[in-house]
C-alpha cells in the first residue's frame, strides 16, 4: 500500500505527538481500508483491521518505535544510541519508549544480539562448486528421461 509507506515514513518521530494530532492520519488509513474493501462508512474499523490483517495505527507506531530502538541498540557505533538509551530518558521519544516498554511488562530494553561482519567480503571468497553438465541440453528438444 502506498498509503502505508507514506504513513510509516517518519512515524517514529511524529508518533510521539499528541493523540489528537494523530487523528487525521488514522482517518486516512481507515478511509483507505474502507475503499480497498468496498466497505460502508459505518463499518467498524476493528473489523476492517482484521480483514486487512493490519494493526491499528497506534499499535503500528508502537511496533515501529520498538523496532527502531532495537535497530539502534544493536549497533554500538550508532550516534543515536547514547541519547535514546541513556538511563535518564528525558527526551520525549525516550519517555514514549519507556511507556511502550512498561506496556509490554519489560523493565528496560532487552539485550539484543549485535551483528558482526566478516572481514572478507563475499566477492573475495572462493566460488561455490556448481554442476553445469546439464547446460548443454536444450529443454524443448531433450527427452524427459534425460532431464530427470
Summarize the structure.
The chain has 148 residues and is mainly alpha-helical.
Please provide a written account of the structure.
This protein is 52% helix and 0% strand. It is an all-alpha fold. The protein is flat.
Distance between the termini: 42 Å
Regarding quaternary structure, what we see is single chain
Task: Work out the helicity level.
Answer: 40-55%
Number of helices: 8
Low-confidence stretches: none
Average pLDDT value? 80
Rg calculated over all Cα atoms: 24 Å
Largest sheet properties = none
Structural class designation: mainly alpha
Task: Chart the SSEs and their pairings.
Layout: H1 2-8, H2 11-14, H3 19-37, H4 45-52, H5 57-74, H6 81-85, H7 92-103, H8 144-147
List keywords for this structure.
single chain, about 150 residues, mainly alpha, 8 helices, about 50% helix
Amino acid at each position: 500500500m502506498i498509503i502505508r509507506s507514506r504513513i510509516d515514513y517518519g512515524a517514529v518521530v511524529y508518533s510521539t505527538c499528541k493523540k489528537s494530532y494523530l487523528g487525521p492520519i488514522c482517518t486516512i488509513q481507515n478511509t483507505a481500508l474502507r475503499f480497498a474493501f468496498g466497505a460502508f462508512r459505518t463499518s467498524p474499523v476493528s473489523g476492517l483491521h482484521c480483514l486487512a490483517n493490519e494493526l491499528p495505527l497506534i499499535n503500528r507506531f508502537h511496533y515501529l518505535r520498538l523496532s527502531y530502538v532495537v535497530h539502534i541498540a544493536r549497533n554500538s557505533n550508532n550516534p543515536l544510541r547514547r541519547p535514546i538509551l541513556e538511563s535518564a530518558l528525558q527526551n520525549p521519544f525516550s519517555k514514549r519508549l519507556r511507556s511502550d516498554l512498561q506496556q509490554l511488562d519489560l523493565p528496560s530494553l532487552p539485550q539484543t544480539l549485535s551483528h558482526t561482519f566478516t572481514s572478507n567480503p563475499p566477492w573475495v571468497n572462493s566460488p561455490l562448486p556448481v554442476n553445469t553438465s546439464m547446460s548443454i541440453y536444450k529443454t524443448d528438444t531433450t527427452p524427459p528421461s534425460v532431464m530427470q
